[in-house]
Design brief:
Two copies of one chain form a homodimer. By secondary structure, chain A is mainly alpha-helical. Chain A has two domains: about 50 residues, Orthogonal Bundle (Arc Repressor Mutant, subunit A), CATH 1.10.10; about 130 residues, Tetracycline Repressor, domain 2. Chain A is built from ten helices and no strands. The radius of gyration of chain A is 19 Å and the shape is elongated. The interface between A and B is medium-sized, with 28 and 27 residues. The structure holds a DNA duplex (30 and 30 nucleotides).
Chain lengths: ~190, ~190
DNA sequence: TAAATAATGAACACTTTGTTCAGTAACTTA
DNA sequence: TAAGTTACTGAACAAAGTGTTCATTATTTA
């Protein structure tokens, strides 16, 4: 009845667990596949039947995190052709909730050196979210620059939030408010001065 | 008369050249020391008498780039104990000039995947520049969040600028203006609304 | 020219990689 | 429950990279 063999799920889980632990302990670059299969306690050939390389594993991990966080947004995109300001605010809050939920899983990684790879993935997803919004970039400011500002600054905001105990101190709504005030302020000032 | 042996300078130059080329071609993670010594055409033991690891080499490269760009700022810091708005604007412009000058050397790297390592270094340096400015973070916004906004957004602005042919299309002054309008606008809006 | 310093290159044990394959265990379905 | 399929095991493999050592050669400086 179940679509996937229990054995596969078990190995994949073991690999992910080992990988995330190792990411925290020594950082992505110094992790070897040897480390992973030792920690996950699986055969060498088993690893290679699931993943091609260490990078492949990382990509799959990123997908499972971010595709989840962005899933409801993609659904919305198909029904509406323009996303209003309130919608966007809700979407961003939604993303932060997802990140917080997976925080136990990702504890410390986002902010660590390994975080760069996550950030790259994160930003690529965010670019789709903010690009729909691009039309309103102020005169005199290149459009791609404006998009990059939204994307980078939201990603960095999330990273800032995930570091230390900030995730416990500030709610997703608060964080979006921080972010949003910077955005709104910038837009206002720019449309004034150009 | 010269302080450093010509042979040393020659090897270091060859290593840096090879390294930068390889950074462009295959990206930092997949570069091996073997690649470097093959490309630089030096003996294995020679490499290890200059650098400890691949990472060490990267750090030395970063230092040579950014310490140069930030050098004149550090001098200023010792003479003034508070840096005015105009000073800061000048400093940022100065940094961009330096980055542009080393662009032939760094063509394509800063903005590429390998750029993450540079960005980390860059941001650490920038944090010192913007932290002096932290006092004026608006009420309701955490101070470290405000600093992070300046730091990240200037670093990402520089990265954006260094990508493609933008460095030829926009002058350092223009880019600082882009950046500055975003900053100024945000500050204005925030002090209004809190 | 002599002494000091740097680069060479070959050898070293060691780790990691990615692949193969026969054998074993766990699941599925008829 | 028996038969067939699918997944994991574990050992072995060549290939490539790492970091170190050392006697030899080349270059520089005084």
């Amino acid at each position: 009845m179940p679509g996937v063999d229990r054995r596969q799920t078990k190995t994949r889980k073991a690999v992910f667990k080992a990988f995330v632990e190792l990411l925290e302990e020594k950082g992505y670059p110094s992790i070897t596949i040897q480390d992973i299969i030792d920690r996950a306690d699986i055969g060498r050939s088993t690893f290679y039947s699931h993943f091609e390389t260490k990078e492949d594993l990382l990509n799959v991990l990123c997908e499972s995190i971010f595709d989840h966080a962005f899933s409801s947004i993609q659904q919305k995109e198909s029904t509406h052709d323009f996303t209003g300001r309130e919608d966007l605010e809700g979407e961003l809050t939604h993303i932060l909730y997802h990140l917080r939920d997976s925080k136990g899983y990702l504890k410390g990684i986002f902010a660590s050196e390994s975080g760069d790879v996550f950030m790259r993935y994160f930003k690529n997803n965010l670019r789709d979210v903010f690009e729909k919004d691009a039309g309103l970039s102020p005169k005199g400011i290149p459009e791609d620059y404006a998009v990059e500002h939204s994307v980078c600054w939201f990603a960095e905001t999330a990273r800032w939030w995930m570091d230390g105990d900030r995730v416990e101190r500030y709610s997703p709504e608060e964080v979006v408010k921080f972010f949003w005030h910077y955005m709104r302020g910038a837009e206002r000032a720019l449309s004034d001065s150009f």
